[in-house]
Design goal:
Structural class of chain A: mainly alpha
Largest sheet of chain B: 2 strands, antiparallel
Distance between the termini of chain B: 49 Å
Strand order of the largest sheet of chain B: 1-2
Largest sheet of chain A: none
Strand content of chain B: under 5%
Number of strands of chain A: 0
Shape of chain B: globular
Keywords (chain B): Cell membrane, Electron transport, Heme, Iron, Membrane, Metal-binding, Transmembrane, Transmembrane helix, Transport
Pfam families (chain B): Cyt_bd_oxida_I
Subcellular location (chain B): Cell membrane
InterPro entries (chain B): Cyt-d_ubiquinol_oxidase_su_1
Number of domains of chain B: 1
Order of helices and strands of chain B: HHHHEEHHHHHHHHHEEHHH
Helix content of chain B: over 70%
Number of domains of chain A: 1
Shape of chain A: globular
Distance between the termini of chain A: 58 Å
Number of helices of chain A: 10
Radius of gyration of chain A: 20 Å
Strand content of chain A: under 5%
Order of helices and strands of chain A: HHHHHHHHHH
Number of helices of chain B: 16
Oligomer: heterodimer
Number of strands of chain B: 4
Largest interface: A-B, 79 and 79 residues
Structural class of chain B: mainly alpha
Helix content of chain A: over 70%
Organism (chain B): Phytoactinopolyspora halotolerans
Chain lengths: 273, 440
């Protein structure tokens, strides 16, 4: 019973990460394809910017819940998947640095433009590495091997399928976030289907993959000691609504679509110093 | 797995944790100062106060990224490289990390996004509350990490059951002497670091004669008068820790005082109790402690002098030689922080969980080549990013406060109370702050 609750809590944070963080990873992957010029690249990065911090903390939380509730699984999984986890972390660092530092150099001279192009490249490359790393991990779990790096043909096929899923999820997320030509371009990927419905669909598929893949993990053998769970689990369950409320607040404050200031009749935003 | 794996894993963890500690020290201290400045600005509605929040806030934001990125890697490194530790002590240690991620990291990052992009969008009192939540959760983060670290230094509230530790007394784990003392010590050290940085950067501008004399004059005074009392807290909390250390880690005390007879006696006693082995910490522990103490004495003298000089408004603006001294002081707290950390961590070697689990028993069963590849990857990435962050911080520190991007999209956020602020009812474009952050 306690163990089931622990698995549910872990699944909640993991799904939260893949659905929310997966969206901005997908956008990062497709940055060069979704944006036609420098102005649009700025918009596509802006689509993820208010959320990337609040999205990635879901993975931080999932990792915390994993080490807290399933301490030996944490060591076995991360140790067994060592190269993939290192790659995911490296990709994550790269894309975060790209997002974080992109706007720190103002101006429009050549050096500043190169700086922003370099940051965009870091976001795209990092996003591909993160997505590929997770696809590989999930593909391994789907094949029933929790803590090893597999290279069978069916695993490779699953990796390609999952990468496609990340990309589609990114397009769906981008379509919800932006306005104007980029939004239309995103809509075309899904044949003009309603954006909310597309995002719900890609989210559901991602969540289902996480649940099915995660069910291969040996939770029963690795769950923490009962005395730890008795204290930690109620604490985690108690703070979760607070964390969720903070997230909902962020979505509400920044949920409006970002529109291209070049098409904005007020034209007030393009005045970055 | 070979002895080299252990050394590679140790080096990797030391570099990650060291980089993390350097940036987080400033994050903790500067967040406090920015939160206090914003409190003042929200009440006073004076433009100079608002400008101080934005200038120092932007420096805080640039610095923040490295803390988060190294912190992330460190959190996963426990599982990656130290699975022996998660197997042995995960029942206690893991809970502290879990609480840190949920009640601290998660909230801190979510609210930081609200603060950065909520400028002018949130009600100004709500925006003020947001930065205070960011600051307090940063403290909470430090506390929970020190619960984990304090448990490794002084494993209380748990007992051995088979080959793993189980939690027996939550209150003992949460109120561990090794945690509480270090918490206040680090918090105060972070304030010294931030105070001296703020004073040093302000001195740079005053020395150059920038037009923002009021902004930097006030900042210089705030920096100096934060750092001095904080240094007292550092020495008191450090002294309390040191006086209790003999009960917890007598070997660390013996190494610190270079008492070879005592070290020998303790080694014999440990060998008798736990079997043969190397139980004395390396000489680096004592060297680090001495560096820490010397820098402390230097800071103490210099800050005393600074506090006297900063009482004169004339000197604050005109004393160019003193400005140079303040600028030169900026690295000192960093040296002391790192040295103190090296003393704490090297001084407990060879243990990862004190007198229970050695570092070499904690390392994961990972091939040398994989460990080396990850060490090279992270060192290269962090090396480049630290250089970029440092360059951006220096660049921002030297820039004109009138050009700060952070908060620039909220012209009405701190409009004068007399109602002269034009267009007060005009809401800024919701995506303006985001687009400013992204750049052109």
């Amino acid at each position: 019973m306690v163990e089931t609750a622990a698995v549910v809590v872990l699944a909640f944070y993991a799904i939260g990460y893949f659905v929310l963080g997966g969206g901005d990873i997908g956008v990062g992957m497709l940055l060069p394809f979704l944006a036609g010029d420098a102005g649009e690249r700025r918009l596509v990065v802006a689509a993820i910017v208010p959320f990337f911090l609040s999205n990635e903390v879901w993975l931080v939380a999932a990792a915390g819940v994993l080490i807290g509730l399933f301490p030996s699984l944490d060591g076995d999984l991360l140790g067994g998947l060592f190269p993939l986890i290192v790659a995911i972390l490296a990709g994550w660092i790269l894309r975060d640095a790209g997002v974080w530092f992109r706007g720190r150099l103002g101006g429009d001279e050549r050096a500043a433009r190169t700086w922003r192009a370099t940051c965009d490249a870091a976001v795209t490359a990092g996003s591909w590495v993160v997505a590929a790393g997770w696809s590989w991990v999930l593909a391994g779990w789907l094949s029933g091997k929790a803590d090893g790096v597999l290279t069978e043909p069916q695993v490779v096929a699953a990796i390609v399928a999952l990468l496609t899923l990340f990309a589609l999820h990114g397009v769906a997320f981008c379509g919800l976030r932006l306005d104007g030509p980029v939004r239309e371009r995103c809509a075309r990927w899904f044949g003009g289907a309603a954006e909310r419905r597309t995002f719900v669909l890609t989210s559901t598929v991602l969540a289902a993959v996480v649940v099915v893949a995660g069910s291969a993990l040996p939770f029963a053998e690795t769950v923490g000691d009962g005395r730890t769970l008795d204290v930690l689990l109620p604490a985690v369950v108690a703070v979760t609504p607070v964390l969720l409320a903070a997230q909902v607040w962020v979505w509400r404050v920044f949920g409006r679509r970002v529109s291209d200031p070049r098409h904005d009749p007020r034209g007030r935003i393009a005045m970055t110093p | 797995m070979t002895p080299e794996t252990v050394e590679l894993a140790r080096l990797q963890f030391a570099l990650t944790a060291g980089a993390h500690f350097v940036f987080v020290a400033l994050t903790l201290g500067l967040a406090t100062l920015v939160a206090c400045l914003q409190l003042r600005a929200t009440f006073s509605r004076r433009p100079v106060h608002a400008q101080m929040v934005r200038f120092w806030g932007q420096l805080y934001v640039i610095n923040y990224a490295m803390g988060i990125l190294t912190g992330l890697v460190m959190e996963l490194q426990f599982g990656l490289a130290w699975s022996g530790l998660t197997h042995f002590a995960g029942n206690v240690f893991g809970s502290a990390l879990a609480m840190e991620t949920l009640v601290a990291f998660f909230i801190e990052s979510t609210f930081l996004a609200l603060w950065i992009f909520g400028w002018g969008r949130l009600n100004r009192w709500v925006h003020l509350a947001v930065i205070w939540v960011v600051t307090l959760t940063a403290y909470a983060s430090a506390y929970w990490i020190l619960v984990a670290n304090g448990f490794m230094q002084n494993p209380v509230g748990a007992e051995l059951d088979g080959d793993t530790l189980v939690l027996t007394d939550v209150a003992a784990v949460l109120s561990n002497d090794s945690t509480i003392g270090a918490f206040w010590h680090i918090l105060a050290g972070a304030l010294v670091t931030a105070g001296i940085l703020v004073a040093g950067v302000s001195a740079y501008h005053l020395r150059r004669g920038t037009p923002h004399t009021e902004l930097f004059g006030r900042s210089l005074r705030i920096g100096v008068y934060t750092a001095l009392p904080a240094l007292f807290v550092v020495v008191v909390s450090g002294g309390i820790q040191l006086s209790g250390l003999d009960d917890i880690q007598p070997m660390k005390v013996a190494a610190f005082s270079h008492d070879t007879a005592r070290i020998g006696a303790l080694e014999l006693e440990l060998a008798e109790r736990l079997g043969p082995g190397e139980y004395a910490p390396p000489g680096l522990a004592r060297a680090a402690a001495l560096v820490m103490l010397m820098v402390f004495v230097l800071l103490f003298l210099l800050l005393g002098l600074n506090a006297l000089l900063a009482s004169s408004r004339w000197l604050i603006v005109r004393a160019r030689a003193w400005h140079l001294l303040l600028m030169a002081m900026v690295p000192l707290p960093y040296v002391a922080m790192i040295a103190g950390w090296v003393f704490r961590e090297m001084g407990r070697q060879p243990w990862v969980v004190y007198e229970m689990l050695t570092v070499s028993d904690a390392v994961s069963d990972i091939p040398d080549s994989a460990m080396r590849a990850s060490l090279v990857t992270f060192t290269a990435l962090f090396g480049v990013l630290i250089a970029v962050t440092g360059w951006l911080m220096v660049r921002h520190a030297r820039s004109d406060p009138a050009t700060v991007a952070l908060g620039s999209t909220a012209p009405t956020a701190f409009a004068p109370a007399d109602g002269t602020g034009a267009g007060r009812d005009e809401r800024p474009d919701p995506s303006a702050a985001v687009l400013t952050f992204v750049g052109r």
